[in-house]
């Protein structure tokens, strides 16, 4: 159990409010402890932009072959696990998976995503209060990925339930129970997907699982089980994160810069800028690597086998990279240089898809609603749930005015 590293045991942030807004703590760390060694878990932590970027780029010193990690280390580390590997092996694994993520596939997905967003927003018809998380931010990514993978969309409740369990955060006290639940969910999920993948191999359709059965690198192909595991991996990588992005966009429009909604309605080119600034400003993401050799780096002696965490949510607020970093500003010229999708060889493969989903969600929403307001007496702490990154929104009720 000691093999999984718990982020909140490093930050020591206790209250929900502080875990939801860890940005003051990040600032404190950047100023006083930018390279911080946590002795309890034997983990290095970096909080500055340049350091985080170096950790993500320098795969020779900071390896993704880890014996401990923020997420459980996979027992089988085969071609279907693109993340837990280093170049050159990583390049190979990623090339297979990337065959389902081409610019052409993205173009084909756009109208399908639009249709799903249209339906979800149409379902809000007649309501004066809508819950953005439950009615848009959760269902959109789940339905999209179910459609894109090519599994029946009526199974999306099941898929959501499995992926929730698989990505539910660990707690020291209940570690064993959670691990058992996850093992069960993984088994059920595999058993569900396996026959679907076998069918796709025989009768390929226009979807990711079919593309993966066909993916071919110098004659090498994924087995059915590897396609199953790749599919589960995509769900894990893409669902909760995209839900957070869409939820946080609305939170930012209400609380980080009230009134900005009208700019979104007036100028559709402002929407992608908002998406990017939310990714920079309101995303407490952290990624780990394993130190590959004894070394002195960032002014400290690090030992082979130690884990180092790049706190990208903090890097994204580093003044040396972003002027007035603590201000929400969709017009900053370099907001795209945030590290929320990672950087270097493991840069998020799904970034174009996540961006497209967020853009379509908001552009569809602004066409239907003239204005949004917080509900009376809104307290964010009543709407939070523990997630892999700390606290995230489980609901966000807002008042809407029909256009
Ligand atoms: C990798 C964030 C959405 C698929 C990553 C990494 C980050 C990230 C930080 C780098 C991990 C590392 O360096 O070890 C996000 C965020 C998202 C998002 C913030 C939404 C806002 C998606 C979606 C998909 C996806 C929608 C696909 C359906 C992947 C995959 C990798 C990855 C396959 C592994 C790439 C590799 O190791 O080479 N993501 N992601 N992500 N992401 Fe995303």
Q: Enumerate the strands of the largest sheet in spatial order, edge to edge or round the barrel.
A: 1-2-8-5-3
The share of residues in helices is 40-55%
Content-based structural category: alpha+beta
How many angstroms does the end-to-end distance come to?
Answer: 53 Å
Give structural notes.
By secondary structure, the protein is of the alpha+beta class. The protein has 16 helices and twelve strands. It has helices at residues 8-11, 16-20, 23-32, 49-57, 89-98, 103-122, 132-137, 139-149, 156-166, 175-202, 208-214, 224-256, 261-266, 270-281, 312-315, 351-368; strands spanning 35-38, 43-46, 62-63, 129-131, 286-291, 295-297, 300-302, 307-311, 369-374, 384-387, 390-393, 397-402. It has a five-stranded mixed beta sheet with strand order 1-2-8-5-3, with helices on both faces. Strand 10 (384-387) and strand 11 form a beta hairpin. Protoporphyrin IX containing FE binds next to helix 12 and helix 16.
Offer a few descriptive terms:
three-stranded antiparallel sheet, 12% strand, 16 helices, alpha+beta
Summarize the structure.
By secondary structure, the protein is of the alpha+beta class.
Give the SSE layout.
Blueprint: H1 8-11, H2 16-20, H3 23-32, E1 35-38, E2 43-46, H4 49-57, E3 62-63, H5 89-98, H6 103-122, E4 129-131, H7 132-137, H8 139-149, H9 156-166, H10 175-202, H11 208-214, H12 224-256, H13 261-266, H14 270-281, E5 286-291, E6 295-297, E7 300-302, E8 307-311, H15 312-315, H16 351-368, E9 369-374, E10 384-387, E11 390-393, E12 397-402
Helix pairs in contact: 6-8, 6-16, 8-12, 9-10, 10-12, 11-12, 12-14, 12-16, 14-16
């Amino acid at each position: 159990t000691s093999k999984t590293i718990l982020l909140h045991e490093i930050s020591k942030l206790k209250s929900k409010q502080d875990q939801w807004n860890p940005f003051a703590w990040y600032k404190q760390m950047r100023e006083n402890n930018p390279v911080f060694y946590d002795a309890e878990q034997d983990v290095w932590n970096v909080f500055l932009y340049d350091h985080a970027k170096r950790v993500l780029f320098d795969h020779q010193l900071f390896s993704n072959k880890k014996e401990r990690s923020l997420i459980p280390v996979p027992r089988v580390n085969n071609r279907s696990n693109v993340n837990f590997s280093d170049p050159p092996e990583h390049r190979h694994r990623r090339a297979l998976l990337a065959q389902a993520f081409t610019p052409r596939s993205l173009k084909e997905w756009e109208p399908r995503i639009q249709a799903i967003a249209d339906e979800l927003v149409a379902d809000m018809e007649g309501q004066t209060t809508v819950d953005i998380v439950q009615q848009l931010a959760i269902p959109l990514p789940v339905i999209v990925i179910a459609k894109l993978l090519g599994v029946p969309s009526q199974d999306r409740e099941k898929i959501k339930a499995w992926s929730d369990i698989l990505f539910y955060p660990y707690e020291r006290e209940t570690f064993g129970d959670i691990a058992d639940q996850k093992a069960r969910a993984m088994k059920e999920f595999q058993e569900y997907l396996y026959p679907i993948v076998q069918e796709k191999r025989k009768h390929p359709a226009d979807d990711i699982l079919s593309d993966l059965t066909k993916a071919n690198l110098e004659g090498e192909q994924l087995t059915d089980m590897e396609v199953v595991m790749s599919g589960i991996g995509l769900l894990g990588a893409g669902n909760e994160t995209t839900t957070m992005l869409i939820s946080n966009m609305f939170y930012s429009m209400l609380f980080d810069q009230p009134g900005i909604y009208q700019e979104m309605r007036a100028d559709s080119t402002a929407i992608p800028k908002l998406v990017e600034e939310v990714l920079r400003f309101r995303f407490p993401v952290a990624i780990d690597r394993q130190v590959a050799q004894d070394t002195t780096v960032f002014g400290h002696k690090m030992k082979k086998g130690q884990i180092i965490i790049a706190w990208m949510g903090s890097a994204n607020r580093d003044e040396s990279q972003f002027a007035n970093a603590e201000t929400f500003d969709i017009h900053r010229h370099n907001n795209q240089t945030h590290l929320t999708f990672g950087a270097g060889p493991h840069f998020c493969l799904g970034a174009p898809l996540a961006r497209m989903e967020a853009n379509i969600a908001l552009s569809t929403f602004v066409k239907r609603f003239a204005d949004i307001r917080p509900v009376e007496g809104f307290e964010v702490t009543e709407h939070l749930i523990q997630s892999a990154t700390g606290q995230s929104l489980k609901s966000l009720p807002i008042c809407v005015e029909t256009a």
